[in-house]
Every structure is written in structure tokens, then in C-alpha cells.
Amino acid sequence: MMLRSLRGTITFTIQPSEIAASPTCEIYVRALFDFDPMQSPDIPCKEAGLRFSTGEVKYHSTHFNNA
Question: Of 29, 17, 35, 37, which Cα lies nearest the Cα of 59?
Fold first, then answer.
């Protein structure tokens, strides 16, 4: 609820842990607000943006190749 009352630019950063248990990182993130990249003035390539709605759960998986 706090984020809904904020004004201005909000930047979220997801940083990996210093200790990597495996070359794969998987997390789930729940949206706390609605976002439409087509309506955002901050995204230079709107087609690459991800639209989401409040309450949606997004799955993010990153695979690292240390080769």
C-alpha cells in the first residue's frame, strides 16, 4: 500500500547473492501495482517491457554459464 502513495521515479534492483549455490537462480515476484510499458515514458523500447497487474506472480529464472 505504501508504494501506491509515492510520487516520482521508483527504481527496483534485484541483486544476486554473493554465495551462488548453483549456476541457476529462480525467484517468484508478486506485483504490488499495475504497470503497462506502453504507457511508461521511462522505457526506450516499449515492446520489450513486461506488462503486469497488481497481485500477479512472475517467475524469473537466470542461468549462468561460467564457461
Answer: 29
Q: Is residue 50 part of a domain?
A: yes
- Domain that includes residue 36, residue range: 31-67
> What is the Cα–Cα distance from 48 to 29, expressed in whole angstroms?
19
> CA torsion 58→59→63→64, rounded to 10°?
50
Long-range contact set of residues 38-44: C-beta below 8 Å, sequence gap at least 24? 42/9
Residue 2 included in any domain: no
The three-state secondary structure class of 47 is helix
Give tens-digit pLDDT for 2-15: 666 777 777 777 76
37 in Cβ contact with 51 (< 8 Å): yes
pTM above the 0.70 mark? no
- The domain tally of the chain equals 1
